[in-house]
Amino acid sequence: MTLRKKLAVSTIAASVALTAFAGIPLSSKGLAEKLGVNGVVYASSLADSALVSEAKKLDNALKATDGWVNVKALQDALNNLTIHQKGDIVNPIVNKIIVSDEEETELEQLFLDAVEWSYGPTVAGLEELHTKYGALLQTFADRGEVPDLSIDDIALYFFDVQKELVKQVGSKDLDGLLALLTDKDSVKQLMQSVLNELSTKQYKAQVLLTNFGITKDDVIGVLSRAREAVDKDATFVAAAGSLFKAYQYLNPTTPPITPGGPGGTVTPTTPLPESTDKLLNDLKAALDKATDAEKAAIITKFVADAKAEIAKLAAISAASSVTTVNGQAVLQLDEKSVLSAIAGINTVASKVKELAPASAIAKTALQINLGEVAQKDVVLNLSDAVVKAAAAGNVSGATFTIGKFEVTVPVGGSFSSAIGLTIKKSDVSADVVGTLKSVSEVYDFNLTVGGTAKTSFDQPIVISIPLGDTTGLDKELLSVAKIVDGKLVFHGGRVSGNSIIESRDSFSSYVVVENKVSFKDIASVEAWAGREISVVAAKGAIEGKSEGQFAPKDKVTRAEFAKMLIRALDLENGSATEGFADVDSAAWYAPYVAAAAQLKIINGRSDTKFDPNATITRAEMATMIARALKVSQGASNVADVNAALKDFADAGKINASLKDGVAFAATHKIVVGNAGKFLPNNNATRAEAAVIIYRALNFDN
Predict the structure, then answer these.
(1) Structural domain of residue 433, as residue ranges?
(2) Concatenated DSSP letters for 617-650?
C-alpha cells in the first residue's frame, strides 16, 4: 500500500470534519496533520489540551445521547473502503502533497499511530505523537511556506469551521437537518457557504492549503466522494444526525436531547448536586407542615444554609484534574461536575431571592484550587459550556489558586466563551529590573477566549502575586511593573499579607519590584506630603514634571487627577472610549479620562467637552475620590450629609452637587479641612492630590 493510499482514511475523515458533524471522533487533527504540520501542531499544550478536551466532551455527549454507535459505523465504513476507493476519493488533495521515499516508512507509522489516537484521544497519547514525530514533520510546515504556523492557528481554524457550521444550521431542528443532509446539492452549498465565510479572515491554515494548491472545491469534492462511497445504508446521514444531537446536548442554551425518535425528547437541565437536592427538599418539607408563624424562622435558617451550600459548591479541589503536557501543568476540569455545581449555586440563589428578596445572595466566584504545582508553566481551561452556564446565573467568575498565586477571571461580557489562560514563570533578569530590587519571579500571561487570543479586555482579571523575601525593603513602595520592550511601566497594586494584588485590563509580562522614586523639589512639603508623594509615585499613579522635579505647588489638572485615580485604584480599562471633542485619542491622559468617564467618576464639563487642562477644586477632588472608592471598594454613602459638614464654617460655599462627595471625603478623613474651613473652591495642588490619593490607597470601608 503506498503512502498516498494510506493517507486516505484520515484525509476522508478530515473532509468529514469540515461538516462539524463527525470532526473530532474521526480525526481531531484533520487536513493539517496530513499536510505535514504536526511538528508545529503539537508544540503548544494549551491547544493540545483543548483538542483533547473537545474530543472527550463530544465523546461523552455521543454516549449520553446513544449516538456513538452511528459515528463508529461511519468510521468503520471509511476504514473498510478498498485501497482503490480510498485513492480515488482523496486524489485531488494527496496528489498535491510531495513526500520523499526516505520519509515514507516513518510517516506510514505516524499515520497508523495518529488514526489509533483519533479513536481514543488522551493527553498522554498526544504527547507521545509529539515526541516521536515532531522533529520529522516540522520540515513539512516549511515546505508549505508557513514556517511560523502554530497549533493555535490550526486549532482555531478547524474549531471556527465547526462553529460556523453549527451557526449556519443551528436554527434547524433535527428533522430539518436530516432533510438538508439527504440533498447532496444542499450539503455542497452549505460547505461552500461555510468556507466562503471563513475565507475572509485570512487564517494561516488557509494560507497553507492555498500554498499546496488545495482549493475549496478540492475539499468539497473529497467530502462528496467519501459520502457517496459509504452512504448506501445512509451511514453518513445517521452519523450526522447523532452528532447534531450531541452538539445540542453540549449547548447549555439548548435543552439536551436524549434518544427516542428523530428529534428525541427534551430532558431536564443539568442535574443538581445531591446536597442541593436535599437542602431544597428539606425546605419544602419544613414549609409544608409549618404554620405561618413558623415559616419566617424556617426561611431565615434556609438563607444561612443556602449561603453555606453555595460556598461549598463553589469550592472545587482541582489537583486531580491537572496533568503534565510538554512540561506544562494543564488544568482540565470535569465539565459535568462543574456544571452540576453551577446549577446548584444558581438554583439555591434563585430560591433565596424568591423567599427572601432582601437577603438575595450576591454572585460568587468559583474557588478552583490546584494545590502546589511544580511546573513553571500552567494552563488553565474553562470550557465553553462552563463559561456560558456560569455567566447566565449567579457565578461572577473563577478564582484559580496555584500554591500561593491566585488569579480571578470574570465571566460574561467579553468572557462569554471557552477561556484558556496560560501563566509562565521565569527568573528575573538584571537586564529588565536594572538596579531595582525584585521580590517576585517574572509572570507572563496569555489569554484566549473562544480560541481567539486576547491582549486587552473590558472586565479586569485580578492577579495576586506572592512576594519573596522583603527583608529590608519598604513594602509600601512595592509595585507591580509591566515589562514593555524591556522597560518597566509601574502599575501599583495593593500589598496584602505576603502578596500583592493588582487588577489588569490587559496582559503582558509582570514583575514586582521596590520602586524608590525621589524628587529634588519637595522639601517645602516634606513634612506633610513627602511620604505620600514617594508612595504614590512608586505605584506609577503620579509622575514628576521633569527628571527629579515634582512641582508640588502646581495646580493639579483634571487630566492629571483622572490618571491618579484610575491608576492608583486599579480601575484601568483599555477598551473604554469617550466622545469628548477636546480629548485627543493619542493624548497620554486619554485612556484614563475614558475609564473615569465610563465609570462616572469624572464628568465632562458638557456632553462634548472634558476640559483636561483645567484646574480642579478641593470639592471636585473630594467628590471624584468618593465616587472612585464607591466603585472600587463598594464604599457606602454618608447617611447624614449635613451632619458631616456642620463643623465647616464655609459649608454653605460647597456646590449642592458636590456636598455628598465632600461629606464622604471629610467623614473618612481623605480630604480634611483647615482651621475649621473646608475651602471647597480652592484649587488643589499636586502635593495635596498625592496626599489624598495616598489616603484613598489606605481606605478601609
Answers:
(1) 274-514
(2) BHHHHHHHHHHHHHHHH-PPPPS-HHHHHTT-TT
| Residues 565 and 506 reside in one and the same domain | no
pLDDT greater at residue 197 or residue 314: 314
Residues 6+ away with beta carbon under 8 Å from 3: 99, 104, 107, 108, 111
Radius of gyration of the chain (CA): 30
Considering only 82-91, 461-470, 484-493, which range has the smallest mean pLDDT? 82-91
> Is residue 177 a contact partner of residue 168, using CB atoms and an 8 Å limit?
no
Give the least confident one: 203-217, 346-360, 505-519, 568-582.
Answer: 203-217
Distance CA 449, CA 420 (A): 6
Q: Pull the grid cell for residue 696.
A: 484613598
Is the pTM value of this prediction over 0.85? Answer: no
In this predicted structure, what is the pLDDT of residue 35? 29
Please give the angle made by the CA atoms of 205, 210 and 215, to the nearest 5 degrees: 110
Residue with cell 444550521: 169
Q: Dihedral angle at the C-alpha atoms of 500, 506, 511, 516, nearest 10 degrees?
A: -80
CB count within 10 Å of CB 543 equals: 16
**Same-domain check for residues 535 and 630:** yes
**Mean pLDDT over all residues of the chain?**
77
Assigned C-alpha cell, 341 = 455545581
Q: CA-CA distance, 233 to 230, in Å (whole number)?
A: 7
Cα separation, 165 vs 314, in Å, equals 34
Query: Could you give the CA distance from residue 223 to residue 11 in angstroms, rounded to a whole number?
Result: 9
Statement to judge: residues 312 and 445 lie in one domain = yes
pLDDT of residue 671: 87
